[in-house]
Write a structure and sequence with these properties.
single chain, Arc Repressor Mutant, subunit A, 64% helix, globular
């Protein structure tokens, strides 16, 4: 690990490994969203109703994977299928009130967990880390040609 990129590669691998333990599910009241539901609901929440085709383009996943994930979200009452508000033929998925509640609860629990991890950091360190992480993600998105909407 003689180059900074080697250290970044290793640390991002560890970040993926730590995620389930850092965001402690045991502390949450009620159920939790799995990672795919959380990510899909976040995107639909930002963009509004989306079709399987739009989700496939946004995530780079095949339709069968998304059909499985959205079917689970439909059964859980997190999304509903609606006609395309713009008049297209494809039906779209819209987040439900329950989906919005679950997404907000999950996000709040994630933020509380992050605040515990970052408790000993200065506000300036937290802001600098957030800026670097955003830049890292937007550069990945730029190279992949798949920008992610931000609030």
């Amino acid at each position: 690990m003689d180059k900074p990129t080697h250290l970044i590669e290793y640390e991002t691998m560890l970040l993926g490994r730590h995620r389930p333990s850092v965001f402690l599910r045991a502390e949450r009241e009620g159920g939790h969203l799995d990672r795919s539901a959380y990510t899909l609901l976040s995107r639909i929440g930002l963009e509004g109703p989306m079709s399987i085709g739009q989700l496939s383009e946004a995530f780079g996943l095949d339709a069968s994977t998304l059909n499985r994930q959205t079917s689970a979200m439909l059964r859980a009452g997190l999304v509903e299928r609606i006609p395309d508000p713009d008049g297209g033929i494809a039906r779209k998925f819209r987040i439900t009130a329950e989906g919005e509640r679950c997404l907000n609860d999950e996000r709040a629990a994630n933020i509380r967990s992050l605040e515990r991890v970052l408790a000993d950091w200065t506000p300036e360190e937290v802001a600098a880390f957030a800026a670097c992480l955003q830049r890292f993600n937007t550069d990945i998105e730029r190279l992949a040609g798949k920008p992610w909407p931000r609030p």
